[in-house]
Amino acid sequence: MKTREVVISGKKAVGFEIPLPGAPLVLVRAEKGFVMCGYLNPAAAEKLGVAAAVVRGVKTVDELLAKPVAEISPEAQKLGVTPGMTGRQAVERFLA
Question: Listing from the earlier edge strand, what are the strands of the sheet with 71-72?
Fold first, then answer.
């Protein structure tokens, strides 16, 4: 597993890359929510009432930050995250 600090606008989040069969699990966790790869279930995030955004087709934290958000939870929408913005923009909205 790779863990790395992600700094956006002077604020810190944590990125994770976990090798799994078929594809890596990629996630960036910020104070108010997280951006995840398509490996994770967005319905579970919605059920738990957490702010989450999904970026599909990524293998690294850098790709997750660069590619567009495909799906969001209602809590992410409340924080200003919209489909089509980059993963970096979504993380920025999840930072306190």
Answer: 2-8, 11-18, 25-29, 33-37, 51-55, 71-72
Measured over the CA atoms of residue 72, residue 76, residue 78 and residue 82, the dihedral's sign is negative
Please state the domain extents for the chain: 2-94
Per-residue pLDDT of the chain (96 residues; tens, 9 = 90+): 999 999 999 999 999 999 999 999 999 999 999 999 999 988 999 999 999 999 999 999 999 999 999 999 999 999 999 999 999 999 999 997
Model confidence, pTM:
0.95
> Bridge-partner residues for 60, per DSSP?
none
Which DSSP category does 23 fall into?
A: S
**What secondary structure does DSSP assign to 26-39, as a single string?**
EEEE-SSEEEEETT
CATH fit for domain 2-94, picks 2.60.40.10, 3.30.1980.10, 3.30.70.1450, 3.40.50.1580: 3.30.1980.10
